[in-house]
Amino acid sequence: MTEEPFLLDIPDFIPEYQEKINYGYKNKAGKNLEQLLRKVSDNHCMYCYAFLKNDRVNIGQLEHSIEKSIDEEYLTECVPNISLACPYCNQSLKRIGEKKRVSAVKPVVKNFEKDLKCKKNSCKGECDNYKAF
User: Under a CB-based contact definition with an 8 Å cutoff, are residues 132 and 108 in contact?
Assistant: First the structure.
């Protein structure tokens, strides 16, 4: 923790995935991942650290860190690519420069898919291909 009184020290969010639980973006796997990310982040946005509970109602959404539109087949259910974000970070901030980021990353997609042994929503950590993004 820093001694600087005006600096927000946002912790790293490193989930510990349970072996027998499926995580993902949609359906039951999405609910499992959301529950885990809420626990790991103490119910805070993983980008701006806003509290994601309002009047006992959970707010916030599962969000793709690297735009799933780059490679929807793999990035949509790529568990390490999914974060918990407040509606503002997910809907507003992400849209700023999205087209530019997508076009800049397009050349990397072929390397991402090369030798990929993707387990999709049964993945429990970042693979080397994902880290290359």
Answer: yes
Dist CA 130 CA 81 (whole Å): 8
Cβ-contact 71, 129 below 8 angstroms: no
Both tokens of 51, joined, read 């509290």
Domain ranges within the chain, ordered by starting residue: 27-131
Q: Would you say the pTM of this structure is higher than 0.85?
A: no
Mean per-residue pLDDT over the chain, rounded: 82
pLDDT tens for residues 1-31?
A: 556 766 666 677 889 999 899 999 999 999 9
| Structure token digits, residue 32 | 């499992």
Tokens of 45: 């946005």
* Assigned token pair, 57: 């109602």
Beta carbons of 8 and 113 less than 8 angstroms apart: no
